[in-house]
């Protein structure tokens, strides 16, 4: 399988998921800063132009990070990162959806419309006037999750079970802490969770080689 790869939190999420699974993917570099993902060769594979994209051995392509990760889970069920039972899988998907809606989506757009505006304003509709409000929505989502994890004493989003939900949150928040949206240290449960996830081997091996040079985490 080939992973069309680049800087940024979404490709890192898939690299980290694959590392946790022990799956080796052939990485095909796509130059995101120059807009290579918006050119005809890449759009022929993924007409929406997003990164990453997973090309299977038969030439078909799967895009969208959670869909890619769920495919990898189906291909190699162990160690489970979505769930071993119907209840666990539903719980993981519930928390992944909540995190995407209340934290990662608004924080991502806060970056695109703020610090990342110069890169994104020519590629998508941007709303720079909304950047601060979107960041605030993301912070409120983190505060809510911090309260819930503190009350439950959970090590991970799904209790004691490390899952896709943790990876979705970690890849984005680790990237954003270097570009204007650090985690508030007063969020003690989330801060401890971040250190816990960041100490996993996959967190180090999934870093993009150019991330440090550009002052990013990706």
Largest sheet: 4 strands, mixed
Q: Which fold name is given in CATH as the topology of the largest domain?
A: Glutathione S-transferase Yfyf (Class Pi), Chain A, domain 2
Structural class: alpha+beta
Number of separate helices: 9
Q: How much is the average pLDDT? A: 94
Percent in helix: 40-55%
**Ends: how far apart?**
21 Å
Q: What is the overall shape?
A: globular
CATH class of the largest domain: Mainly Alpha
Supply the CATH architecture of the largest domain: Up-down Bundle
Cα-atom Rg, whole angstroms?
17 Å
As a percent range, the share of strand residues is 5-15%
Report low-confidence residues grouped into runs of 5 or more: 212-216
Strand order, sheet with most strands: 2-1-3-4
Order of helices and strands: EHEHEEHHHHHHH
Total number of strands? 4
The domain count comes to: 2
Task: Please provide a written account of the structure.
This protein is α+β, with helices and mostly antiparallel strands. It folds into 2 domains: 2-75, 3-Layer(aba) Sandwich (Glutaredoxin); 86-201, Glutathione S-transferase Yfyf (Class Pi), Chain A, domain 2. Helix content is 50%, strand content 6%. Strands 2-1-3-4 form a 4-stranded mixed β-sheet, covered by helices on one side. Helix 1 links the parallel strand 1 and strand 2. Helix 1 packs parallel to helix 3 and helix 4 (86-112) runs antiparallel to helix 6 (131-152). It is globular, with a radius of gyration of 17 Å. The protein starts with a strand and ends in a 13-residue tail after the last helix.
